[in-house]
Amino acid sequence: MRILVTGFTGQLGYDVARECIKRGYEVIGSGAEASYDCEVPYRQMDITQADEVGRILEEIKPDVVVHCAAWTDVDGAEKAENREKVMAVNAYGTENIAKAVSAICAKMIYISSDYVFNGEGSEPWRPEDESAPLNVYGASKLAGERAAEKWVRKLFVVRTSWVFGINGKNFVKTMLRIGKQRKEVRVVNDQVGSPAYTADLARLLVDMAETERYGVYHAANEGEYISWFDFCEEIYRQAGLKTKVIPVSTAEYGKNLAKRPLNSRMDKSKLRENGFSPLPAWQDALKRYLKELDERHGV
To answer: Is 184 helix (H, G, I), strand (E, B) or coil?
Structure first.
């Protein structure tokens, strides 16, 4: 099986490529960078250019495209000067990929977000629940979903949340850095959801690529739903840091340009119903992640 991974240089794309290699699949990574020193074949591809996307996919002829490329700066997306760029990447770029995938009759896995929901209430969001994004980023990811659904017959849409991985910036790395510099940190305690370790998520995505059980899924690590405050406390506990974590509300924190969903709980039961193994508990995922960080960087 030949798999093209867009957004290869990001957290999830990197781990998807690593998982493909482990299973002996042929994998090609792609990204906007002109060159990238990596262990897999790499193609520069600007997903906002339809002709370029169509030409490259026709040339590569992948069996599966795992579409991880995205604008992920949630606050930056709110700035007026960036809004067209966000839509160009997350919505129109996804449509370009979807059209090219359809033309070669390949499978597509589109990575979406809990941000497609309005974040209200306390019940876990089901895949079939109505979407009503709170911010520009969420609207752009929902537009990407709609574009993929319009063009691709063999489609997986996988919504995830609170992603952390070895390659790139994330909450865990940020909290570790701050925790070593300060005696106390303020972290919001009224946004509730589930973390997703990219190594675990990547295994699920490649599992999906091996099947034809298409549809919209929710995926994050198992375990109780938690707040960012809870997550930070566990990060410091496992890392052996004594930094005091002070819980604050989103309103008290008040540093974000984009409105954040308070309820990012997602119902992941469809994974089991369709024969996919759920991701391990988030505490276990964090333990393995911190171990890999320490082995690589001495964190």
So the answer is: strand
Cβ atoms of 150 and 98 closer than 8 Å? yes
Joined tokens for residue 113: 């977000």
Catalytic, 110? Answer no
Torsion, Cα of 287, 75, 225, 240 (10° steps): 30
Angle of the 171-181 helix axis to the 228-239 helix axis, nearest 10: 60
Q: pLDDT at position 254, please?
A: 81
- Which residues, including other chains, have CB under 8 Å from residue 146's CB and lie 6 or more apart? none
Q: Residue type at 28?
A: I
Question: Phi/psi of residue 106, each to 5°?
Answer: -95, 170
Residues 6+ apart with CB under 8 A from 273: none
Confidence of residue 295 (pLDDT cuts 50, 70, 90): confident
Per-residue model confidence as pLDDT tens digits over 78-98: 999 999 999 999 999 999 999
Q: 188 - beta bridge partners?
A: 248
Q: What's at 80, amino acid-wise?
A: A
Q: What does the alpha-carbon distance between residue 291 and residue 299 come to, in Å, rounded to a whole number?
A: 9
Amino acid identity for residue 233 in this structure: E
For 116, half-sphere exposure in the C-beta direction (CA atoms, 13 angstrom radius) is 26
Distance CA 280, CA 271 (A): 13
Work out the angle at residue 280's Cα, subtended by the Cα atoms of residues 203 and 39, and round it to the nearest 5 degrees: 30
**Catalytic site residue from 137, 217, 236, 289:** 137
Where do the DSSP E strands lie in 32-101?
42-44, 64-67
196 closest CA partner among 227, 158, 160: 160
Q: Which residue has the higher pLDDT, 105 or 256?
A: 105
Distance separating alpha carbons of residues 269 and 125, to the nearest angstrom: 11
Neighbours of 144 (CB within 10 A): 28
> Kind of pairing, strands 226-227 and 192-193?
antiparallel
Exposed/middle/buried for 22, CB within 10 Å: 0-12, 13-18, 19+? exposed
